[in-house]
């Protein structure tokens, strides 16, 4: 058993569950009112499935918008799939929830930012935690999630 309660990791999971619940509702009922989402994700994360040309164009991260045109939104326990239109060419994408870096709904000034987590190799109590592929570049502690400024997403 762990020596302490990892509140950061628990909050991280809960916030990803919130995204899952929101996307499930949109999948079932559509986008209500002016709601729309900017979702930035790590294109290198294990489980991300996007076209090779998108990976070439966005080798590290990509932001998608769920607003006017999207199809086949399917939400699972570990991630979601959606078809988006890129230059009149529909492309299916699959994004694990753990790959999401930011989730923003500017219509209600709501946003989450997920920072890279330090993973302890001694932590065997969490089977769902992704393994870190690379060591952190600095020794500063990382936050699990925080509110992201919406100013960069506002229309002028």
Give a brief outline of the structure.
The chain has two helices and eight strands. The chain has helices at residues 7-29, 52-57; strands spanning 37-42, 61-66, 70-75, 79-85, 90-96, 100-105, 110-114, 145-146.
Q: Strand order across the biggest sheet?
A: 2-1-6-7-8
Judged by helices, strands and strand pairing, the structural class is alpha+beta
Radius of gyration equals 16 Å
Q: How large is the share of residues in beta strands?
A: 25-35%
* pLDDT averaged residue by residue: 78
Shape: globular
Number of strands: 8
Helix content class = 10-25%
Largest sheet: 5 strands, antiparallel
Rounded to the nearest angstrom, the distance between the terminal CA atoms is: 52 Å
Detail the poorly predicted runs: 118-148
Tally of contiguous helical segments:
2
Helices and strands, in N-to-C order? HEHEEEEEEE
List keywords for this structure.
156 residues; alpha+beta; 3-stranded antiparallel beta sheet; 8 strands
Write the layout of secondary structure elements.
Elements: H1 7-29, E1 37-42, H2 52-57, E2 61-66, E3 70-75, E4 79-85, E5 90-96, E6 100-105, E7 110-114, E8 145-146
Antiparallel strand pairs: 1-2, 1-6, 3-4, 4-5, 6-7, 7-8
What does this molecule look like?
This protein has two helices and eight strands, in the order αβαβββββββ. The model is unreliable at 118-148 (pLDDT under 50). By secondary structure, the protein is of the alpha+beta class. A five-stranded antiparallel beta sheet has the order 2-1-6-7-8. A three-stranded antiparallel beta sheet has the order 3-4-5. The radius of gyration is 16 Å and the shape is globular.
């Amino acid at each position: 058993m762990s020596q302490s309660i990892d509140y950061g990791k628990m909050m991280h999971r809960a916030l990803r569950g919130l995204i899952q619940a929101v996307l499930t509702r949109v999948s079932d009922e559509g986008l209500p009112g002016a709601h729309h989402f900017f979702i930035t994700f790590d294109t290198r994360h294990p489980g991300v499935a996007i076209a090779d040309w998108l990976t070439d164009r966005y080798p590290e991260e990509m932001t998608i918008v769920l607003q006017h045109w999207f199809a086949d939104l399917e939400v699972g326990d570990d991630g979601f799939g959606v078809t988006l239109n890129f230059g009149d060419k529909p492309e299916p994408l699959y994004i694990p929830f753990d790959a999401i870096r930011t989730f923003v709904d500017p219509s209600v000034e709501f946003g989450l930012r997920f920072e890279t987590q330090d993973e302890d190799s001694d932590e065997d109590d969490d089977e769902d935690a992704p393994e870190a592929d690379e060591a952190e570049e600095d020794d500063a502690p990382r936050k699990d999630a925080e509110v992201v400024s919406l100013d960069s997403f506002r229309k002028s």
